[in-house]
Fold this protein.
Amino acid sequence: MTASPAPASARLLRRALHAPEADRGNALPAGAWWLWALGLATAASRTTNPLLLGLLVGVAGYVVAARRTDAPWARSYGAFVKLGLFVVALRLLFSVFLGSSIPGSHTLFVLPELPLPDWAQGVRIGGRVTAEQLVFSLYEGMKLAALLICVGAANALANPARLLKSLPGALYEAGVAVVVAMTFAPNMVADVVRLRTARRLRGRPTGGVRAVAQIGLPVLEGALERSVAVAASMDARGYGRTAQVPAAVRHTTNVLTLGGLLGVCAGTYGLLAAQGAVYGLPLLLAGLVTAMAGLRLGGRRSVRTRYRPDRWGVRAWLVACSGAVVAAAMIWAGAVDPDAMRPGVVPLTAPVLPLWPAAAVLVGLLPALVAPVPPSSYGTGKPSSYGAGKPSAHGTGKQARIGKEQA
């Protein structure tokens, strides 16, 4: 007696959850990673519960650890984590030295207060420091740190060159400049490290004004040579060509783009403010549609072709939708149970982890299951070159020139 074959839907689900090894053909679009990260960031902006914020940071960190490559941009996540910790510490220092409007009865210590004139009423420097104001500042600092870490996760996972391919034609020139700058920055850092190491091996100082000048000049010279070489190669390939468009189209593009961006700003403010949750989302969506229409019209000036355009497959949509689910669940939880999402500090109470919002945050782990696995994660022992690109001729020439500088 043979077992009945599995349903087609179950086979498709198992195939979707089995992540293949990443290559240039099945890499996720950069927009999918950014939508996922922005969903987590939106969720972080809707709560000050430290348990939920810590869970969001843990989800982002786990996905980054499981799916980032060895490319230079993938190493930026640690910098965003350090920046988040710095923001938390800075928020606490401001609360201690500049005070807070949060009343409290649990006095921790009293600092000498600097007397201020009458026109500076409401502002104080020093004075009484309470546990309530420190806890409030800690919650707010953790929220901002979680936002930064979520953005850092997108920077570590999304290939900036692939993100450039997804930009509208109206933003193509600006996108090219940003991507070239982001590509050259790691090379400049590597040049500085290489020159400092060479000077240290030769017994020369690596600190001080003279050492900085001796290291900085070759690095800047190499960056200028690289920029000129890239500009010449881009000009030879036809970058910068523009098409003629009617004046009416240009005016319509400006009106739609400016109006859409204003709508996006107003809608985002409405989503972040507790009083504007009703009109925030419709205004944000209307602004996005208007701005996209303006950018699409403005893209008629850009004459370009796409080589291997990114395809939005099932995995890309699962990654993007997982972030949207987390954001929607947290927005809904903020409307249904605001006390759990924003624990009070007066009176001082311990935060409680709401179960179903926490379960919704765990949906953000889906990219760690469905996104293609970088080659280095398969235990080959070789560094992953996926998405990093090949060294260019002017790059190898720059390395040879730096070798001469070191000698």
